[in-house]
Amino acid sequence: MNCDRLTLGVIMGTFLICWLPFFIVNIIRSFFPGRVSDVQFVAVTWLGYANSTANPIIYTILNKDFRTAFKRILFGK
Question: In which compartments does the protein localize (predicted)?
């Protein structure tokens, strides 16, 4: 049970770290056009996309059942 809470906390924290900059930049762009460059916008967008890459890594590290199933899928029995 405690491990599940840790996993959920790490997943939620990673989600916030990855997506919060994107939403902040979008708010800034709405109220102050031209203040955020296209490069910055693309960077925070890709940071958000990186969240999808981080999730399987987090689950593999923190969840033994997921790790076992993942190994079974990749390498067979």
Answer: Cell membrane
Q: How confident is the model at residue 76 (pLDDT cuts 50, 70, 90)?
A: confident
- Residue 3: half-sphere exposure toward Cβ, Cα within 13 Å: 9
The token pair that represents 58 in the structure block? 């987090």
Q: Which two tokens stand for residue 51?
A: 């969240």
CA-to-CA separations, 49 to 4, 25, 46, in angstroms, rounded: 24, 15, 5
Q: What is the pTM of this model?
A: 0.82
Q: What is the DSSP string of 16-39?
A: HHHHHHHHHHHHHHHHSTTSS-HH
Boundaries of domain holding 31: 2-75
Which tokens in the block code for residue 74? 């990749």
Structure tokens at 49: 């996309």
